[in-house]
Amino acid sequence: MYLYKSVYEYGEAEYVIEKSRFIAHVQPVESYEEAQEFVNKIKQEYKSATHNVPAIICGPKQEMQWASDDGEPSGTSGLPMLKMIADEELTNLAVVVTRYFGGIKLGTGGLARAYTTAAKLGLEAAGICEVRDSVSLEYEFEYSYLTKLQNVAKEGKFEIGETTFTDKVTATLECALEDAEDVKKIMSDLTSGQAVKKLEKNCLKRYEL
Question: Could you tell me the pTM of the whole model?
Answer without folding.
Answer: 0.80
